[in-house]
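Design job #97: recover the sequence.
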């Protein structure tokens, strides 16, 4: 009986150690191949080579704290790869009348992640309130994003997918707006649009243990960070003092989005399409 228990313990420990080694191997393989993966998501290899030394990426979010709650791994990896990363946040997060404070928290968070103030744009528009019940105008949001894209000539735009990770209506509105730009041909040929993949509840809250699944499942771009990157992501989130309720600490500890981002390409429609 004792022997059976001992063997079971050895088996469990062996499986855990093998899985941890697998995570380590996947992480280091990702680090070696990230630059090539980044270039491959652009629309053509010719375009990728021409902008390799001048890649400009725009992260589009809905609220202050979205950048670190959901996009920390991609921002950190892009910054480490010498990509010029910009952030467009479409509200000040004024749901509890804390807009001014949250705006400064966002700037502090971005500084930790590696985005200087000059590359952060925060929209304060009365028709874009921070409210999960508010229906943001797709045409308004898309026009703001298009204007920002034209002003800075981005090669890559990263934002939410149709589920918005948390299902927040403002998150999904941002995705609808970017998709609208894509399907109406308002995106330059050398700009790739990427949506952050929403995963199920179990995968969402198994922290870095989710990494092998993200590596094996189909994805056009994967961004993984290790312990040092996680500390930066956590420090960025700690800048958002107004948002540090008890459940945020659980999120920081267990969410895979603090370690892993996976993206899919948002399909683009024909150019010069007229909408009546």
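Job complete. Output follows.
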């Amino acid at each position: 009986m004792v022997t059976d228990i001992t063997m079971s313990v050895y088996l469990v420990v062996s499986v855990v150690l093998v899985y941890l080694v697998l995570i380590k191997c996947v992480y280091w393989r990702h680090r070696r191949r990230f630059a090539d993966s980044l270039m491959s998501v652009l629309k053509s290899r010719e375009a990728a080579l021409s902008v390799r030394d001048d890649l400009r990426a725009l992260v589009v979010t809905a609220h202050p704290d979205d950048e670190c709650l959901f996009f920390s791994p991609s921002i950190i990896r892009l910054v480490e790869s010498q990509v010029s990363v910009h952030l467009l946040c479409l509200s000040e997060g004024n749901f509890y009348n804390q807009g001014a404070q949250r705006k400064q928290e966002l700037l502090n968070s971005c500084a930790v992640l590696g985005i200087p103030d000059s590359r952060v744009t925060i929209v304060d528009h009365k028709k874009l309130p921070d409210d999960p019940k508010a229906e943001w105008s797709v045409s308004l949001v898309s026009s703001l994003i298009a204007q920002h894209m034209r002003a800075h000539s981005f090669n890559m735009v990263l934002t939410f997918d149709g589920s918005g990770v948390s299902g927040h209506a403002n998150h999904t509105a941002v995705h609808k707006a970017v998709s609208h730009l894509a399907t109406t041909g308002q995106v330059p040929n050398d700009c790739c649009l990427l949506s952050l993949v929403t995963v199920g509840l179990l995968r969402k809250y198994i922290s870095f243990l989710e990494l092998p699944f993200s590596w094996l499942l189909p994805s056009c771009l994967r961004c993984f960070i290790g312990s040092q990157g996680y500390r930066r992501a956590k420090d960025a989130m700690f800048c958002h003092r107004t948002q540090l309720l008890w459940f945020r600490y659980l999120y920081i500890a267990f969410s895979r989005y603090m370690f892993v981002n996976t993206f899919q390409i948002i399909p683009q429609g024909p150019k010069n399409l007229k909408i009546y």
